[in-house]
Amino acid sequence: MGRYLFHRAWQSALTLVLATVVVFLGMRALPGDPALALAGEDRSPEALAAIRHHYGLDQPVWVQFGHFVANAVRGDFGSSIRTGVPVSSMLRSALPVTVELSALAILIAVVLGVGAGVLAAVRRGRPSEWLANGLALIGLSVPHFWLGLLAILYLSVGAGLFPASGFVPLSHPIDNLHHLILPALILGTGLAAVIMRQTRSAMLDSLSADYVRTARAKGLRPGTVVGRHALRNSLIVVITIVGLQLGGLISGAVVTEQIFGLPGFGKMTIDAVFQRDYPVIQAVVLITAASYIAINFVVDLLYSIVDPRIRVAGEAS
Amino acid sequence: MTAVVETPVVPVAVGPGRRARVLRRLRRNPLAMASLVVLVVAVLAAALAPWLAPYDPSQTDFSHTMSPPGTPGHVLGTDDLGRDVLSRIMYGARASLEVGVLAVLVALLVGVPLGLAGGYFRRADAVIGRLTDLLLAFPFLIMAVGLAAIRGASLGNAAIAIGVAQVPGVVRVVRSDTLRLKSLDFVAAAIVDGAGDAWVLARHVLPNATSAILVQATVAVPAAILGEAVLSFLGLGIQPPSPSLGTMLASAQQFAAKAPWAAVMPGLTIMLLALAFNVFGDALRDALDPKGNR
């Protein structure tokens, strides 16, 4: 276990360093001279030199990279070019919205996906399997932002059931949920489709395994066999899928926030792109990559705790 | 990132007899045939849009704005500028398919060699593993955001962002198939026989990995089509006034209460396209599965 943990931690750290280098180099590849953009009216060579000196742009690349990393570690990502607000305080107000939206969406996705997956595997060849499979295929194929548009059009504006946009902080739990439930449903159904298909196939494998046959032969009730024996092993798959789908979830959250006017990480990202607010874009890209790496490291640890075979395989490779 | 990932298929070598069996299985699957028909019709409609579309997709007509579907001359109605929705959908589907195919080509061109190298050469494997971990850490939308900031938003950049984001999936499938094939007797025999690495990879490994690659490509296209729609909707992909299903939805958002069809039709088109690819991909995987009906 110790060796595996060390191995995975080292891999994750390496990936994080590489990601930081990519973001740093990407920002240097931006068109235009940053000093010119910062200079405004006074573009005399002396003024430009002063700006370069002030922002450390006259230092060697590796020194600049060191400053970039040191600042990022302290949570200092500079300030928005447009508003002058520190990026860190923008993040402090935006991140909780996105984290809550994603957590709700994951919850919905796991409940729907595991439920439908188990149903489809247990009721093989019956109409309910076809229905679950069909819904999963549609869930994989439907553009979710379009479902969001239709939901706003018909459920919010048309029927008045939900607010069409906006966000209420968690301190007002009922109002907060009322604003978030529709976006979370829209975001969660896409993930649910993926989870359902993986759960179904894992359940079909477990249900035909020897230990399930043994459990049945012992005379255990079908519910116990499915719940305690087959599903327990299949849940390992679900943990991995949630980790792997995290990238898709982040992309989905960006669009969902944009449609429902939620003031989260995604909306901040899109606004920054259109305003060419580079310090914000840089922070957003770096934080996404870092959280993806960190969460998947945790997922891997969970996975290896649940299933010792993975540990062995990881050490062998 | 993760140690163990499920691979969709582990098909055995495709010989002439097996190919016939795969085709027979596909022909007998009504869902596969239905999705194939949808795909052929969609590709034809998109490819022949300049000749088949009733109107120029950007031609405005301010005397017929927001006409409902069924209006004479406008089967699917018109939008807020009086542009014909059907014509715009045909051109939009053309752009969607273009991005879908371009993105998957990018993913295959980068991913197949990396997957072959990772599965075949132990030393390359660790480096390629870190590289795919790195790519996974940048979700396609974040990659598109970065690319749009550096190079501007366009169809090409959208396809690159989506394609690069799909590289890890291709690497995973090709690598695991290469690992499997490498351990088979006929490959070992070729190596003992003195065949070079390049020869073994090109002559023995790649041809036998094609069915896995094919299935991966079939499910990557609909993901790319959905990705293009998202990017264009957000303004990070195809730029208006060029017709794209995503930009159509973005503009329809403004007047959806008055002309819901302008918001419904492009979305349905995206769904139908993606669904046809996904259903066909499933059927293809089942047909290629040597274990039979699963």
Automatic annotation (TrEMBL), chain A:
Q: Which PANTHER family match?
A: DIPEPTIDE TRANSPORT SYSTEM PERMEASE PROTEIN DPPB-RELATED
Q: Which Gene3D superfamilies match?
A: MetI-like (1.10.3720.10)
In the bilayer, the protein is annotated as:
Multi-pass membrane protein
Name of this chain's protein: ABC transporter permease
Give a yes or no for keyword Coiled coil in this entry.
no
Q: Which domain of life is it from?
A: Bacteria
Provide this UniProt record's keywords sorted from A to Z.
Answer: Cell membrane, Membrane, Transmembrane, Transmembrane helix, Transport
Matching CDD domains: TM_PBP2 (cd06261)
Q: Membrane-spanning residues where?
A: 101-122, 134-157, 177-196, 235-260, 280-303
User: Source species, please?
Assistant: Nocardioides koreensis
What subcellular compartments does it reside in?
Cell membrane
Give start and end of each ABC transmembrane type-1 domain: 95-299
One Pfam family, short name: BPD_transp_1_N
- PROSITE patterns attached here? ABC_TM1 (PS50928)
Has the keyword Cell cycle been applied to this entry?
no
Family membership = Belongs to the binding-protein-dependent transport system permease family.
UniProtKB/TrEMBL annotation, chain B:
Query: InterPro entries attached here?
Result: BP-dependent_transpt_permease, MetI-like, MetI-like_sf, OppC_N
List the keywords (alphabetical): Cell membrane, Membrane, Transmembrane, Transmembrane helix, Transport
Q: How does the protein's chain sit in the membrane according to the entry?
A: Multi-pass membrane protein
- In terms of one coarse class, where is the protein primarily found? membrane
Q: Where in the cell is it found?
A: Cell membrane
ABC transmembrane type-1 domain mapped to chain residues: 93-281
Q: Which residues cross the membrane?
A: 31-53, 99-121, 133-150, 156-174, 212-238, 259-280
Similarity section: Belongs to the binding-protein-dependent transport system permease family.
| Name used for this protein in its record | ABC transporter permease
Q: Which organism is it from?
A: Nocardioides koreensis
